[in-house]
Amino acid sequence: MLINFALTQFVPGGPIDQIRARLEGEGDSIQNIAGTEGGGVQEEDSGYVGARGLPPEFLAKLEVQFGFARIVCDEGFVGVPSLTAEECRKEQIPAVERFFIMMGNYLTLDFGESYFRSISVVDLVLEKMPVSITLGLWSTLIAYLISIPLGIRKAVRDGSSFDTWTSGIIIAAYAIPGFLFAIMLMVVFAGGSYFQWFPLRGLTSDGWEDFPWYQKITDYLWHIILPVTAQLISAFATLTLLTKNSFLDEIKKQYVMTARAKGLSEARVLYGHVFRNAMLIVIAGFPSLFLGVFFGSSLIIEFIFSLDGLGQLGYRSAVERDYPVIFGTLFAFGLIGLVVGILSDLMYVLVDPRIDFERRG
């Protein structure tokens, strides 16, 4: 939080500059700083009021509203503090003080309100959450359901032709950029040049609320097949090869040879003895995989399939310098990451009873 807050103090084009550029007809303040054309600057002799500049009183009120300044009144002032009162004036709030004010609010889970959308940050995140839940949950679930059995199969048949050609397919899939695969899926299966089997955009069809429950489910699944497939293309490689290598390490250990010598079936050896030990390293990587898919890697997929989720929310907030949304989501998702990390430690104990954190050291 401290590093990101410090970076924003040096980035040009803050929220006040964004609003000023829009109202004065200059497009985006970032474009103006970069020297590119804005949104069509109006001539000063035109009838456009914004071309003559915004009143300083309006900009001062914005600074107070956004928390960059405060109203200070002389002693003895009676009434509501206002910039129009002669006894009151605007005072800039130092960046250090603003940081501690922000963190104090976050400790009470007060994330504020978006500068540009007139909605609280919590409500805004909840509004965009269904798309990210869809992409993150289904992608993680399908990746684990396919990669773990495939990794076990590859470990058992290590060096065989099955192991060789599956490794080739997995590595090739990992090398394909997700956005390129998404475009290929759209061209082939979403009405591009070949088939029109799936919808081109959105999470549900128009009038979805009026569908019967079974049609709602099928329509939802129909819409998510392509974006989830595009999200999954590179998720198999790491998890599959990690599972394979973990099982190979365990299969070569002495207890496996002992279990086989006792006459246990191969399935009993693999899933009754090897599985729990080999899954430790896979479970250790679950938090980073889950958070990466859930919060970080869906921006391009959301753009391509016109899905309005947390990826697009984060991008637009960064471009618009919507600080409450940027820092509020950063704090919340960082907190979620810590909780997921703790849960993964607890899962260690469930998977392998030999681990006892109370006896460490």
Your description of this structure?
The protein has 361 residues and is an all-alpha fold. The chain folds into two domains: 2-107, no CATH class; 121-359, Orthogonal Bundle (MetI-like fold), CATH 1.10.3720.10. It contains 16 helices and two strands. The protein has helices at residues 2-8, 15-23, 29-34, 56-65, 95-107, 121-156, 161-175, 178-189, 213-232, 235-251, 254-261, 266-284, 286-296, 299-304, 310-320, 323-351; strands spanning 69-73, 88-92. The protein has a two-stranded antiparallel sheet. The two termini are 32 Å apart. The model is unreliable at 29-52 (pLDDT under 50).
List its traits.
two-stranded antiparallel sheet, 16 helices, 361 residues, MetI-like fold, 63% helix, single chain, 2 domains, mainly alpha
Topology of this structure?
Elements: H1 2-8, H2 15-23, H3 29-34, H4 56-65, E1 69-73, E2 88-92, H5 95-107, H6 121-156, H7 161-175, H8 178-189, H9 213-232, H10 235-251, H11 254-261, H12 266-284, H13 286-296, H14 299-304, H15 310-320, H16 323-351
Antiparallel strand pairs: 1-2
Helix pairs in contact: 6-9, 6-10, 6-13, 6-16, 7-10, 8-9, 10-12, 12-16, 13-16, 15-16
